[in-house]
Structure formats: C-alpha cells, structure tokens
Automatic annotation (TrEMBL):
This is Sugar ABC transporter substrate-binding protein. It comes from Vallitalea longa. GO terms for cellular component: cell envelope. It comes from the Bacteria. Belongs to the bacterial solute-binding protein 2 family. Residues 30-48 have a biased composition (Basic and acidic residues). It is found in: Cell envelope. Residues 58-313 form the Periplasmic binding protein domain. Residues 30-54 are annotated as: Disordered. GO terms for molecular function: carbohydrate binding. InterPro entries: Peripla_BP_I, SBP_2_dom.
Length: 339
C-alpha cells in the first residue's frame, strides 16, 4: 500500500514538473517572438527614416507664381527632388520683400539643405541669406547677383531687353515702314526688370527711331497685362506694337487685343519667357509674334537648377556666376519648342 502511494506521488511530481517546463519554454518562446517582432519593427522604422532622409531638402521662394514659366519650373523641380527621395517646398512671396524674408527664415528654421531664391529686393534678402549660409545651407540665386549666394544664375537683363526691342523694331520697319505707336509693359519695381525695360526702350529708339513710344506702365502677370492694355487702348487706340518685359504681361496684352477686336496682321506683342500660352498664341497667329525663351521650358529650367543643387549639396566646387542661354522663338521655329 505504501509502495503504491509513493509511486502515485512520484508520477504526480513528474507531471507537474513537465507542465512547468512546458509553460516556461512557451513563455520563453513568446518572449523571443516578441523580441524578434520588435526588432523587425525597429529595423523597418529605421529603413523608412533612412528613405525619408535619402534626398536633399529644398526651400524655394519666387516672386510671383502666376507667371507660368516660374510656376512650371517650380513644379518640375519639386518632381526631380522628390523622385530622388528628397523634399521640396516652393512659395509665392507675391512680390513682397518682407514676406520673402519670412519665408527664408522659415526655411532656415526647418534646416533645409538648400534655398532657391528669386529675389524681389536684393538688399532686403542679403542679411537673411547670410544667416542661411552660416547655418550651412546652400543658396541658389535665380536672376540676381547676390553676395550671399553660392551660385547666381544670371541673365544680362539689359541685353535681353535689347533683343526684345530689336525684334519689335524689325516688325515696325517691315510691317509699318518704321512708323507706329508703341506701348511698353515694364516692371521697374524689380531692378533687373527695370534694366530689361530700359533695354527695350533703347533698342526701339536705336533701330526704329521714327516709332513713337506713347505709353509705359508696369505689368508682370496676365491680369495686370490685360488691365493695363485696356487702359492704354482708351488713351492710345492706334497702338500697334506692345513690348513686354515678361510672358505674364504679354499674355494679358494679347487677350486685351483680342477682346478689343484689334487683332490684325499688323499688331504685334514682343516679350521674354516664351510661356506655353505665348507659344500657343504665336502658333495660332494671334498678337504674340516673338518671345525670348530663357534656358528652355519649365522642365529644362528645373533640370539645370537641380543639377547645380546636387553639386552644391554634395560639397563640390562650382563657379559662382552661371549665365543662362536665350533663344528667340517666332512663328518660324515655335514648333521646335511648343509640343
């Protein structure tokens, strides 16, 4: 009897021990599985973080995004940056220097790698851009020869204005025997565009001296261009040639001409930028007769800017002053640039 009892107790102890060992192993396996899952989640997060940080971070501020060539360039550049794993924010400062300074300050606070600035006022942005460079941020200046920039992407704006004026003068001489009334849509609020406007006026005086400039007013976007042209026609209904510092004003002038019923083979609008709207109007034999393509379309501009940004952020040595190419677009070659 005692022997049987001892055997029973022994069997129960073995059973309890086996259950305890099973539970212990199970807990160890669960803990091990939890550790593996946690490690995988941590590795995944690290990979995601690395992917997010794999490209450059760019902040860009431009004068006026209602200008089609500027807005399309910004959007194309954003696409290039993001395609390489980076991030980009582009902003319209509405031609307000104080607003542009605030935008640059925000880029600095967000620790971007590079800032692309299309300055409204050179003197106003120099100090804040100096602060950006002190923080290790690369600065790319679009159209202005800034002191506090790593690259300045330039146009000789006076000479560009002379190209616009020369083409207008050729039209005046060929179509109007050298004599007609001319309107100029300039934008003296921005120094480089003041130079461009001066180039236009000087070229017309030099190459079509009998032409008469009867109106000068500022317009930088289509809305302003149309409104200003409507006002010009009220005082000077015989205007036959309009010279504009940029495509925004030129597009608006063309619309005003059509709305006024003044579209004939003798009226012409001459400008720079060669926006898509301008080139479509050239193809359709509307008032836009010529525009100067600077570097290329928005995609071409973005490709060039991005190429320089890559070198800057990588720490490569680059020339500070880079001059842009110009191409005269007329009815003869518009199909090469307007697809």
């Amino acid at each position: 009897m005692k022997e049987t009892f001892k055997k029973t107790i022994m069997m129960l102890l073995i059973l309890v021990l086996g259950v305890t060992m099973t539970v212990g192993c199970s807990k160890k396996e669960e803990k091990k599985d939890e550790e593996v899952i946690a490690q995988k989640e941590d590795d995944t997060q690290k990979n995601e973080d690395n992917e997010e940080d794999s490209g450059m971070v760019v902040g860009m501020t431009v004068q006026d995004l209602s200008n089609q060539i500027w807005s399309s360039s910004c959007e194309a550049l954003k696409g290039l940056v993001e395609a390489d794993g980076g991030k980009m924010t582009y902003l319209d400062c509405a031609n307000n220097a104080s607003k542009q300074i605030e935008q640059i300050e925000n880029f600095i606070a967000n620790d971007v790698d590079a800032i692309v600035v299309h300055p409204v006022d050179v003197n106003a942005v120099e100090q804040v851009l100096s602060e950006a460079r002190e923080a290790g941020i690369k600065v790319y200046s679009w159209d202005e020869n800034l002191e506090n920039a790593d690259i300045v992407w330039l146009i000789d704006n006076y000479e560009l204005g002379k190209i616009i004026g020369q083409e207008a003068a050729r039209w005046i001489n060929d179509v109007h025997n050298g004599e007609c009334e001319v309107a100029v849509l300039d934008y003296p609020q921005i120094p480089v565009l003041l130079e461009r406007g001066n180039g236009i006026v000087d070229a017309i005086k030099e190459y079509a001296p009998k032409a008469k400039i009867v109106a000068k007013t500022s317009a930088i976007n289509p809305t302003e261009g149309m409104a200003k042209m409507e006002t010009i026609f009220q005082a000077n209904p015989e205007v036959q040639v309009v010279c504009c510092i940029g495509g925004g004003g030129a597009v608006g002038a063309n619309e005003a001409i059509k709305a006024a019923g003044k579209l004939t083979d003798k009226i012409g609008v001459f400008a720079a930028d060669a926006t898509e709207q301008e080139m479509e109007a050239i193809k359709n034999n509307e008032a836009n007769r010529m525009s100067v393509l600077i570097t290329g379309n928005g995609e071409a501009i973005a490709n060039e800017i991005y190429g320089w940004l890559e070198k800057l952020v990588a720490g490569e040595d680059v020339e500070k002053e880079v001059y842009r190419n110009t191409i005269i677009v007329t009815a003869e070659n518009v199909d090469d640039y307007c697809k």
